[in-house]
Amino acid sequence: MTLSQPPRRDTRLDPYVETYAARTNDLQVSAVRALFAVANRPEVVSLAGGMPNIADLPRQAIGEAFAKLVVDQGIQAMQYGSGQGEPFIREKIVEVMAEEQIKANADDVVISCGSQQGLDLVTRVFCDPGDVVLVEAPSYVGAIGTFKANQCNIVHVAIDEHGIVPELLRHAVVLLRSSGKKVKFLYTIPNFQNPTGITQTLARRQALLALAHELDLLLLEDNPYGLLALEAEPIPALRAQDDERVIYLGSFSKTFAPGFRVGWVLAPHAIREKLVLTQESATLCPPVFSQYAIAAYLDQFDWRGQIRTFRDMYRARRDAMLQALTEHMPPGSTWTHPKGGFFVWLTLPEGLDSQAMLPRAVTARVAYTPGTAFYADGLGSRNIRLSFCFPTPEQIAEGVKRLGDVIVAEQEIHNTFGIESDSFVNRRNLTPGPAPDTN
Amino acid sequence: MTLSQPPRRDTRLDPYVETYAARTNDLQVSAVRALFAVANRPEVVSLAGGMPNIADLPRQAIGEAFAKLVVDQGIQAMQYGSGQGEPFIREKIVEVMAEEQIKANADDVVISCGSQQGLDLVTRVFCDPGDVVLVEAPSYVGAIGTFKANQCNIVHVAIDEHGIVPELLRHAVVLLRSSGKKVKFLYTIPNFQNPTGITQTLARRQALLALAHELDLLLLEDNPYGLLALEAEPIPALRAQDDERVIYLGSFSKTFAPGFRVGWVLAPHAIREKLVLTQESATLCPPVFSQYAIAAYLDQFDWRGQIRTFRDMYRARRDAMLQALTEHMPPGSTWTHPKGGFFVWLTLPEGLDSQAMLPRAVTARVAYTPGTAFYADGLGSRNIRLSFCFPTPEQIAEGVKRLGDVIVAEQEIHNTFGIESDSFVNRRNLTPGPAPDTN
Known about the structure:
The structure is a homodimer.
Chain A lengths: L21 H4 L6 H8 L5 E2 L12 H19 L9 H12 L10 E4 L1 H13 L5 E6 L3 H9 L3 E8 L2 E2 L1 H13 L4 E6 L13 H14 L3 E4 L15 H4 L4 E6 L11 E4 L2 H15 L4 H13 L2 H26 L5 E2 L7 E5 L6 H10 L2 E2 L1 E2 L12 E5 L5 H25 L2 H8 L12
Parallel strand pairs in A: 1-12, 3-4, 3-6, 6-7, 7-8
Antiparallel strand pairs in A: 2-9, 4-5, 8-9, 10-11, 11-14, 13-14
Helix pairs in contact in A: 2-13, 3-11, 5-6, 5-10, 7-8, 12-14
């Protein structure tokens, strides 16, 4: 290379393409993103997003509390803070976790910029490129995205209606280790899983913990929906039963509001230290004003009562969705019956492809997230994640009705021409990476 | 490994030590951190931290603006947002950058969780482990920390009183490339540099940009202090003179308040796309409420007037520091005369070691940051960064007086026993990694 003759940048689409890190070349814009932009039009019922419904928060009173916060504590709340997060909100978080039988010390809590950043911090602390992360199949699209962005080798472990299947987990770990792979942790969402709505039973949790002990395996428990149980009280968290082998991710995004970007990681002490150092190099400190704001909310408001209000609201929406599915889904469709959280997992009649069907659904003014987004390996083409969190019960009923019509029409095309089931095989290598799960 | 016999964890200090990523094993707690905890005692004058003085912000009015924000726009401000950041604040940021002659499009701005996260995002987009990042010597401790945490190979390029020395930069790039190293970018703080307070002259900037063009080298321009010029108007930013080869980092931490954690990256379009994808996997979206809050501040307050007020306040503090240094430093000491920003860079008389001296300074009730924190290679033992941003002029005068006494006493010990200059050599391999620069 002659230094006085720089490479001709103008002839390439991205002049920096040879300069990026290896991880960057794997990043892809989701092909469904453009479609979601269309799906945000008011005439479309979106059953796609994971946005909580925060319209009923007492905004007048919250605004007054924030005004007082700025006047009384603004000098601290608007200043740099601790890389670990502020002590008083970590104390509050210990109280929140106690609602799920978790005993913890505030010193073992690290605040993150949303629990998404908790995921990223944990991954950065543990994973070199190529290290194996075990992930429930299907699982949260944003976790898959973070593991991919950190160049992890994602190995799926299937779940059934009771959660992760211990025998399959054992099999995967033994096989991977025998071939010399480094298995860093299992990522699991025990409560009202995203995307399936499935909850690990207590027996399954105990089996999982016993297996983790036997295999010397770390568990990364992600629990954003645990307090949004719509029927019985929640089952004790994995972390409530084991404080040595479980790293726990929590969030205020679903029990208060996501815009503050305050999540947390609860980790054994040695890991907590590494997380803090990683947080410091990533952000110096997580959002300070947000931490004061949420602490003020927890201090001055009946947050437990607000969660009960949220539960009632989401229960009505879930019921509207299950009712509409019963009314409008054609034979051959099946779906989960979540006992909490935000999501129903729909399986289409054989031969249909949810991603291929999406443009036609959006044309029919209903949007959803295709199942392939929740797998790292291209599976899920017959599945759909339906969210009942954001639209009203009336919108949900209308949206599911539209979806039923689209599926029926799709079935007719399939039965006549048999196109879709083949196209899946042809297209699976082109399946794009998942998009973030915020809309 | 027998699966039924997990390794004996109890006998090791950190049971997870074999599980961490390679990058994690390089993370170190700074040895000066414990000392800084002591330095935060009220009787100690801390000249160590980089905290802005935000005590004079109009908190009553800001609180009222936030209350109105929650009532009027809370449903959006407390919800998930865009991975790139909200459009309206990106428009506002374009206005802020125009104050430094930067012409930009809001579409090329990416919001980060403080500009520290901007640094991390850029590093993640470009750097594989072992890639070279060129860094001014000395430079911002938090940047060195991020580059280290991302396993970059930090190569220093010396600065003189006019900023980075182009001949040394050329030499470094040619040498590194001829030995097959990948040089990803040069990290530079042209205005009132942290830690030296030195400002790149216009001629030096032009030479740097010409050299970057010739060498096909990306520049990462970090400009948190640009609007805090204490004498003449600021010199045009590098980005104001080149929009193809400069990635620009901006921040509200010094011109408004750091606790919201809102910084930004302005980058050429192709790089901007990669930054957004990386941001999405890192946090889903940067703090949304913070963006609304800062946009409300920029909209409803005389932020330019506030910056003029900050300038007057910091000018008085800088003048107090320079005056006190003239009065109290013994012969053989030299220091910079910053025209803006927060910092003075002090060089101790020959034979003294600023890190070894720190415990004695804290005992004498004055704290500073030893120069070694600002080098990746153990240099800087004769240097001290003094901050004039946070303490009052009276505290600064008293702190510098105490420091002068400590240095004189240290010189006497050195002249009598000649200990310190040797101990540097013995200790340099033990020099800890830098601590974050928030206190």
